[in-house]
Design brief:
The chain has 13 helices and 13 strands. By secondary structure, the protein is of the alpha/beta class.
């Protein structure tokens, strides 16, 4: 097993594990702070992070900025010396503003996916905030490395490779996901190609670029396999949902604990990407053709046409975060159904790394 620390820019995580970012309201300051305190990398999701703020309905953008500051402060109080960052989806309407604000707040790291964060280096320029794109293929890794180096003379401080068993929004087509489900070992070849791509850039520019692999990381055996392949760290999401420290409502955690394998399904998100979720009451109604009534647009996504989408993802995710499982969307990883008890963050980390 890899007992080496994970270096991110000028920071060092004693535990080579990053906590996956889960929104809306699942990985906030509480969970991120607990993971950072345990020696890992804690991540706060910025996706509609201000949903509990009194001004959210009137001005979600400003409510989100306020909540970013509050949740980072909360995490810092829990882990003053820990590594704490924000996950900011490139698909968000105010992506640039959120990224710039996160760096001004002093976040240690910004991780961006749901599209390629081509201009992220510009938004953190002049700060010490490390940056990490999320990729799922060698092609996307090459594209972001080439673009960043050519335009900004900068390479990623960290690369997150998100596999097909990850939760939430996925960087694959539905057809590709089905292919990987039929042959779960097939993606190992893609991971090796990404590692080779990273190595080439490292040798060219004499810079170490740590690689963290995510997606279906739920056992010690899987962690060991990824380290043997060459990963510098692993990212874990679903295992942290059913922890004492997770910011999710208890009813949300219970959805994971009661889910069976057949309840884990892939849906189409208004973001324009497939997403993996738990089939609950709300999702069954959606599958039966029920169209959600959209009375308000929160302008969260760059590309969203309320008149054409079957449901508002902000509304559905907020309902779930508040524990309303009758009207809520519950994202999860492919192996979420294996969680059968509430643990602590430290217990999860120990079960995977020790």
């Amino acid at each position: 097993m890899n007992n080496q620390p994970l270096y991110i820019g000028e920071k060092k995580a004693k535990v080579p594990m990053m906590q996956g970012s889960m929104g809306i309201g699942i990985s906030l300051g509480g969970l991120a702070g607990a993971v950072a305190k345990a020696g890992g990398v804690g991540m706060i999701s910025t996706a509609q992070i201000g949903f509990r703020d009194k001004d959210f309905e009137r001005n979600p953008f400003l409510a989100n900025l306020k909540a970013m500051r509050q949740e980072l402060k909360k995490a810092r109080q829990i882990a003053p010396d820990g590594i704490i960052g924000f996950n900011i989806m490139t698909a968000l309407t105010h992506y640039k503003d959120y990224a710039e604000y996160a760096s001004r707040l002093g976040a240690d790291l910004i991780v961006s996916g749901a599209g390629l964060p081509v201009d992220l280096p510009r938004y953190v320029n002049g700060t010490k905030t490390a940056i990490a794109p999320i990729v799922s293929s060698k092609k996307s890794a090459h594209t972001i490395f080439h673009y960043w180096q050519k335009k900004f003379h900068r390479l990623p401080d960290l690369l997150v490779v998100e596999g097909p068993q990850a939760g939430g929004h996925l960087g694959f087509t539905r057809e590709t996901l089905l292919d990987y489900e039929e042959n779960s070992e097939q993606y190992i070849g893609e991971i090796k190609e990404i590692f080779a791509e990273v190595k080439w850039w490292e040798e060219q520019y004499k810079k170490k670029i740590p690689v963290v692999v995510a997606g279906g990381v739920d056992t010690k055996e899987k962690v060991k396999t990824l380290f043997q392949l060459g990963a510098d760290g692993v990212q874990v999401g679903s295992r942290f949902v059913t922890t004492v420290e997770c910011d999710a409502a208890e009813a949300y955690k219970q959805q994971y604990l009661s889910a069976e394998k057949e309840d884990i399904v892939v849906i189409q998100s208004p973001v324009g990407m497939p997403g993996r979720a738990i089939r609950n009451t709300w999702l069954r109604q959606l599958e039966e053709g029920k169209k959600d009534t959209i009375t308000k647009c929160y302008h969260c996504l760059k590309k969203c046409e309320p008149a054409k989408i079957p449901y508002c993802i902000t509304k559905a995710l907020i309902a779930a975060a508040n524990g309303d499982m009758e009207n809520g969307l519950v994202f999860c990883g492919a192996n979420a159904y294996k969680s059968k008890k509430i643990e602590t963050v430290s217990e999860v980390i120990d079960s995977l790394l020790k």
